[in-house]
Fold:
Amino acid sequence: MTIAWIALACCAATTTVPCYGQTATGIPHLQKQGTATQLIVDGKPFLALTGELGNNTATSLENMQPIWPRLVAGNMNCVLAAISWAQMEPAEGKYEFALTDGLIQEAQRNNLKLVFLWFGSWKNGLSSYAPTWVKRDYKRFPRIRIRGGKSIELLSTFGDASRDADARAFQALMRHIKEVDGQRHTVVMIQVENEVGVLRDSRDRSEAASRAFAGPVPKELMDYLQQHEDTLAPELKEVWTSNGSKTSGTWEEVFGPGKPDSVDMPIQTNSPPLSQEEYQSGWRKLHWPADEFFMAWNYAKYVNKVVEQGKAGYNIPMYVNGWLQQPNMAWPGTYPSGGPLPQVHDIWRAGAPAVDVLAPDLYLQYFDEVAQRFTRNGNPFFVPETSANAANAFLAVGKYNAIGFSPFGIERSVGPDNELAAAYHVLSEMAPVILAQQGRDTIATVLMNQGDAPKSVKLGDYTLSLTYIGRGRVPIAPEPAAPAGRQQAPPPQAQAGGRGGQAAQGPAQANAILVSSGPDEFFMCAGSGGLRVAFTPGLPGPATVGLGDVQEGRFVDGKWVVVRQLGGDDTGQGEILTLRANTAMRVTVYRYE
Structure:
């Protein structure tokens, strides 16, 4: 690919991802490019280098005033901010949009995009952001009940009035956003609810829920599973086949027994009740899947109604996010049972076709493993909550074609002098060529620890051999704590993607995104460390590879601008290519004998 074509590629029309309804030209929407799904804003792919504000940070414009310039200084181009149902509809049918309008105006003033988080019926599995008038009327808006018949502050999916009230409010919000921002496109995506699912038990045990659980699995779901049998998530398929691949029956007949009444649900599955071996492996297994599958179906159907109503008001991309199963939270109910986790993605697709993306809140050190599970069957990858790990930002964007990457509590760590800001700076400089190649075999990502053996990557007509040579560090800002009420498994110090990925916590690392943009042309950028790159030709011809143009630079309005032309000592007299930390480069090569 020539440099001139990069800008055109970023604007090229591609196959539209199947989604709910049609989008007008220019309105934010999703499009497919190869195996990637990209967010298109004003006709161009948009890479969201963003962060999520604390739950209540954006509840006043005054509180946000000192934060906006810090977000810009941290090289962000977008921010995730919550909209509370309780704050927006303090009395039934009385909507207040002054805060929403102010956030949009301030984002525009600071040249930032917005992703709004709709804290409606559920936040962190519970219902603390529902309006007081909803909470008080527990007969009209019923709660779930857990073991022993206890009611907790968690709206039941079997409350049609709750669903309809949520959907009406959300539709009013989306209509208003279209009215005030339908031309500017400041708001580019919406998160609907937050980390839905049943906590403190594996399923809702209210009278209505128990009747449904004892009844047949809906034909709509059984038909979907049969039609998609060859591509079902392996976790779901194993449960179904091990119980005889039945095409009808009750939830327990089709998917096996639910949680016994004799089992007390702990807050966490620390050992005990799990053995040490179970603690290490139990979070990768399903426990009482009939309960989790049942709740996944009912949450999906409820959320789908809310999303449909919202898209009828303004049809922009909408996603749901999941609190992950993990070592400390291996049983459904210790993590929200029924949320959009990989083992129930097929159930969510069947029940909530209006939802565009199923997204992980990914604080675990197993970043690579979780990303692989979330991108199965073409699910677009967006990380709405995570730790401020710059290496994982590179991995998400370069390897998993991420729409965006968003550390939580960003206002507590954002600044111009930390690794995330440096990573966002270089990713923004490389965004045009990255977005032009996402979803194709012309882009690769490398993550190396100090002491690793050299790694080889085949790109274009060459094999690139990469050797770790050192870490160029920038100061690291303190990282915010995980959201309240949640403890994450402590990360192995050698793993990338732990509770913040701070350099001092583990071995020095180097990470890079590499792009083959033409027969003998490469673009590459490095994050926190340095790499030496050697080229081996893959086609017949001269075996020796020489360095042609070696340039440090950036893209400006889709065009490559050279900052430094390198030669001499900086390229080992034309024989050694060094990719330095926090640097974007264009390199051409040639062959000779």
